[in-house]
Amino acid sequence: MVGRGELTDAAWERIGPLLPPSGGRGGQWRD
């Protein structure tokens, strides 16, 4: 199950390279 503000591994594989380095996976959206 994907929680609020989280993405699936597959989604991260696609968008990961497009995002700037900002504290790691999901860092910007963590509450």
UniProtKB/TrEMBL annotation:
Residues 1-31 are annotated as: Disordered. It comes from the Bacteria. This is IS5/IS1182 family transposase. It comes from Flexivirga caeni. The lineage of its organism: Bacteria, Bacillati, Actinomycetota, Actinomycetes, Micrococcales.
